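Wait, can you check?
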Amino acid sequence: MRILEEDRTVKVGNYEFGGDKPLVIAGPCSVENRDQIIDIAKKAREKGAHLLRGGVFKPRTSPYDFQGIGIEALTYMVEAKQITGMPIVTELMDLAHLDYFLEHVDVIQIGSRNMYNYPLLKALGEIDKPVLLKRGFSATIKEWICSAEYIAKGGNTQIILCERGIRSFDSYTRNMLDLTAVPIMKKETGLPVIVDPSHGTGRRELVGIMSKAALAAGADGLIIEAHTHPDLSVSDKEQTIGIEELGQIIHQMTAL
């Protein structure tokens, strides 16, 4: 049973997910400092990116990996938005920060690990704010749909779904990017669906080609990890592309 009776779009500022044109969300895996995120935002905007992403809180498998710099990072993202006009997307992990996110964040992201955090999803169902719901790395299509329904059941149907790859037996890529999920989820939910080729592959050299494949599959947009100095990124540098390549992907997308 579809979440919505009719296909819908999700508006974020002047942009519309699920409309006639695919959108690109771009930025670093993690906000490292003020100068870094503002510089990336300016250059990503110049290349045609529409929304700015950046990790404020970083859920990591290892407790010894960089965990993000927290609310301080969000203040830098807000400043980057003021300078560039780019709406901001970042991940919420704790309901204690929800009020602050409601005030400052344009799209609240729920990451792969929190797709099953049902109390968090229920709370997001009661707000008037777009939610970007990533697929869990071991989630079936049905489980992903049910997570979206937790949000929609509360009244918030401003949901953008994100295919970001699922765990498989092959370790050549970080995950297996399941592009069949794009037409399936659009059909089964009526919601816009975007693709994350960065997490979906974990390999910088595959981001561009899988971006084109995602758009060919009908994706309503892309979320891409991009950095002015990708080799110096404090997290996920193997899958982070440079700003010039980001511009090439957006140019190709526009041509398509």
Notes: The first helix runs from residue 34 to 46. The longest strand covers residues 221-227. The chain has a mean pLDDT of 93. The two ends are 32 Å apart (CA to CA).
